[in-house]
Amino acid sequence: MLAHLAGALVDLGVDVDFLVPDTNHLYLRPLQGRARLISLAMPERALEDQILDYLSAVRPHAVLTAKSEDMRRINRLRHQASAPFIHAVCQGTNLSQYLAEKPWFRRTFKRRQEIRTIRAADVVIGNSSEVCSDLHKLTGLDDTRIRFARSPVIHEGIFEQAEADPGHPWVGDQKRPLLLAAGRLVAVKDYPTLLRALALLRNDVPARLVILGKGSRLKRLKALAKHLGILGSVDFLGYTPNPYAFFQRSDCFVHSSVREGFPSVLVEAMAFGTPVVSTDCHSGPREILKNGQLGRLVPPRSPKQFAEAIRCTLEQPIAPELLRARALEYSDRVSAQAYAEILGIPVP
């Protein structure tokens, strides 16, 4: 997401430096020749020396970080830099939900660490109103320190990629609806609920499900699909470099998470006019779907309600133009303009 944001800021006329360990990574290709890509050394001491040299030499107006370790690193180094700058941190996780999942003996330490890190920054930018509300309660910071900006999800590149043929035999079958899910195969995504919902749905509707993403739970999910008698109706495709070809050609996007910060996959599906069914988890789905006006919301871990919501959506999908219009509110340009305003960066 930061790469998309950087590209959009460049398009607005902002000079952007992107500091990363590997400047040749695939996701950075759109930035080559546009932003300045700076390769960082990996040993910790050399890394901090290099960042400090950069801060002192370049004197940036603002530094944006998204990972906790990077936030803490910049907090340590800012007092040694030769010129002040704004340290802004991007927060895309509902911290209270995240911390609640930690073992009790780690929870207290982690909570104090995260709060201390966030409070040390100049401004915290949350990507959903619920994330911002949680930050207010957790840190006690006011509205001048906690700001909201939409994630830069939609950019022109996804529509170009979507034109490619996904090359999957299930695509285009008018008699059997194609459901799509995307995300890591981990516990928080709760794919077991989705598989159970599919098994119930197939009693009435011959739907099939494609899941994009890899993770540690693949074997047990396949075992569950076999147990439910739907293994032949589920395809675990793993990592897919071009998911947008599937987004554009699916009959319904399904999202079963028990916790999120901001599920950008919902917005990506909506950008192609694909109807959505999602759990009403913390946080993001209710905000994105406007309290269920733009897609059915079901309680987490509720297979029967999930199956019924999918069936109703296939029978009466939301108008595609409404979904596309909502998705464009999360374009990279809209996001970049919000970030520039928050950081006090003049835009030509």
From TrEMBL:
GO molecular function terms listed in the Swiss-Prot or TrEMBL record: glycosyltransferase activity
Instruction: List each copy of the Glycosyltransferase subfamily 4-like N-terminal domain by range.
Output: 2-147
Question: Sorted alphabetically, which keywords does the UniProt record give?
Answer: Glycosyltransferase, Transferase
User: Residue limits of the Glycosyl transferase family domain?
Assistant: 173-324
Lineage top rank: taxon: Bacteria
User: Which GO terms fall under biological process for this protein?
Assistant: carbohydrate derivative metabolic process
In terms of Pfam families, this protein maps to: Glyco_trans_4_4, Glycos_transf_1
Coiled-coil residue spans: none
Could you tell me what this protein is called?
Glycosyltransferase involved in cell wall bisynthesis
What is the organism lineage in this UniProt record?
Answer: Bacteria, Pseudomonadati, Pseudomonadota, Gammaproteobacteria, Chromatiales
